[in-house]
Amino acid sequence: MFATAFVPNLRARAIRNDFAVYYVSALELRRGIDPYATDFAHLARQTGLEIKDVLRSTEPPTFLLLFEPLTHFPPRTAFWIWQTINFAALAGALILMLGPASGLSSPLAWSLAAFAFIYPPILSHFWFGQSKLPLLLMLVVMTKLMRRRFDRTAGLILAFAGLVRIYPFAIGGYFLLERRWRPLAWMGVGAAVGAIATIAIVGPANCLSFVRGLSYLTTEQWSSKSGDNAPLAFAIRFLQESGLARNGVSGLAQHVLLATIDIVLLSLTVRATLLRPVDHDGDLRLFSLWVVTAIMLPPVSWDYDMTLVLLPFACMAVAASSGTASWRSIAMAISSYALIGAWRFSEIGNAQNVTGLAENTLNETASLALLAAYFAAYWLVTDNAEPTPIRFHNLAAAAWRRIFAASPTPVA
Question: Domain locations in the chain?
Answer without folding.
Answer: 219-406
